[in-house]
Amino acid sequence: MLATAADSSRDGGNAQVIFTKWVTTQGDGKPVRFNMAGVVSGDVGGGQFVGEILNLTPPGATTTIKALYHLNGDAHQLTAQLTVVQDNNAGTAVIRGVVTDGWMKGAKVRGAYQVIAPCSIVNAQNGFFGDVCFQGTLRIQGHGHHYIRKSGFPSSQGSCRQCSCRRDR
User: For FRET with 97, which of 85, 137, 142, 162 sits at 20 to 30 Å CA-CA?
Assistant: First the structure.
């Protein structure tokens, strides 16, 4: 009997992740400008958000940010390389990128967040930018599923688990 991963198979191989994050510290600038922390839920399971801002344009009406998001849920872990365009007047952002490591590697990432200030999370209140956090959703657009044997070899039947992290077909 084949086991299916309800977290990503229910929507054609797509997954959804909800996050709340905040900026914790300034980075070393080589290449990390700022460090982020937070929480995740959704199809990765409950867990921790860790991120690095690698580059950003000077704030104006919009800020363009290059970042790495590490989503460490209790069901799945992944890293995504993202470009974020934040509308500073509206307090919203659009997110685009790709999963570069872990679960669903190679999948496109689309999402958005809202700037929350003041933020009711105690850890965020002590963040680098003060009492500000960012709450949003990422949609990971899967590239389909295949099955691999528990031993790690491709299979279309038998004792298998569903996987979206490698293309074995």
Answer: 162
